[in-house]
């Protein structure tokens, strides 16, 4: 399989609400992966399940991870063992007329694949992509990586071989007897926004806030609510 191709296989058939599972909408999956910066990566170590959170960036049909070369679990992933990643965005709270019917609007994906370690020019290009994804516009304002930093950083590419995507955009589904009552029902959207910049304690006086930061300040994450 080419590294820029992946397919949906719905490896985990849902026992409930299969209508919310969509493993064919690649655009919706990629939007979630662009908007979400942290995933939980699961694998088996010494016959026990392990799940670790880490920031990632989408690169075509793969995810890029980076961390310390001293990380035992990143070194383990670098051997090519099977790995599963879970990514979720909560877009709103569904307020029904009972706690039982209340829920959330969300998008979630489970990805299956394996990782390879990147070196040389591939590593440098991947680190640039990660920086652009997590800190848009920042690369032009700061110095380049030095040799010591590069030696201390590991970069992995997780090829997405299979995936499932689940999406809930529901409204309250109350029984008729509750609809006839006096309780409010509806959806409260959750909107993630960049806040007020905080100067570092050791920032020298007279240095203005970075243009990259100002561009992000107040920006809202795209919501599917």
Describe the structure using short key phrases.
6 helices, Pnp Oxidase, Chain A, 7 strands, 6-stranded antiparallel β-barrel, alpha+beta, 225 residues
3D structure, described in words:
It is a single chain. The chain has helices at 26-35, 72-77, 120-134, 147-152, 176-179, 211-216, and strands at residues 38-45, 48-59, 62-68, 82-95, 103-117, 153-168, 186-189. It has 225 residues and is α+β, with helices and mostly antiparallel strands. The chain has one domain: Pnp Oxidase, Chain A. The chain has a 6-stranded antiparallel β-barrel with strand order 1-2-3-6-5-4. A hairpin with a 7-residue loop joins β4 (82-95) and β5.
**What structural class should be given to the helix and strand makeup?**
alpha+beta
Q: And the CATH topology? A: Pnp Oxidase, Chain A
Rg over CA atoms, rounded to whole Å, is 21 Å
Structure annotation, total helices: 6
CATH homology-level superfamily = Electron Transport, Fmn-binding Protein, Chain A
- Provide the β-strand percentage band: 25-35%
The CATH architecture classification is Roll
User: In order across it, which strands form the biggest sheet?
Assistant: 1-2-3-6-5-4
Sheet of most strands: 6 strands, antiparallel, barrel
Alpha carbon gap, first and last residue: 35 Å
Helix content: 10-25%
CATH class: Mainly Beta
């Amino acid at each position: 399989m080419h590294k820029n191709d992946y397919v949906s296989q719905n490896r985990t058939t849902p026992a409930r609400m299969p209508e919310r599972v969509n493993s064919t909408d690649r655009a919706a999956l990629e939007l979630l992966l662009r908007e979400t910066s942290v995933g939980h990566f699961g694998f088996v170590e010494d016959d026990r399940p392990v799940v670790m959170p880490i920031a990632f960036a989408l690169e075509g049909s793969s995810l890029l991870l980076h961390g310390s070369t001293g990380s035992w679990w990143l070194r383990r992933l670098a051997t090519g063992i099977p790995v599963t990643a879970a990514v979720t965005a909560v877009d709103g709270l569904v307020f029904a007329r009972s706690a039982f019917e209340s829920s959330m609007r969300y998008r979630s994906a489970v990805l299956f694949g394996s990782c390879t370690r990147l070196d040389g020019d591939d590593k440098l290009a991947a680190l640039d992509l990660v920086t652009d994804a997590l800190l848009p516009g920042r690369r032009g304002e700061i110095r380049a990586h030095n040799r010591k930093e590069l030696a201390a950083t590991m970069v992995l590419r997780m090829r997405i071989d299979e995936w499932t995507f689940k999406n809930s955009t529901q409204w309250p589904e109350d029984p008729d007897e509750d609809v006839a009552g006096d309780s409010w029902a509806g959806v409260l959207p959750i909107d993630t926004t960049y806040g007020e910049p905080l100067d570092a304690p050791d920032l020298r006086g007279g240095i203005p806030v970075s243009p990259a930061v100002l561009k992000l300040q107040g920006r809202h994450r795209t919501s599917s609510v």
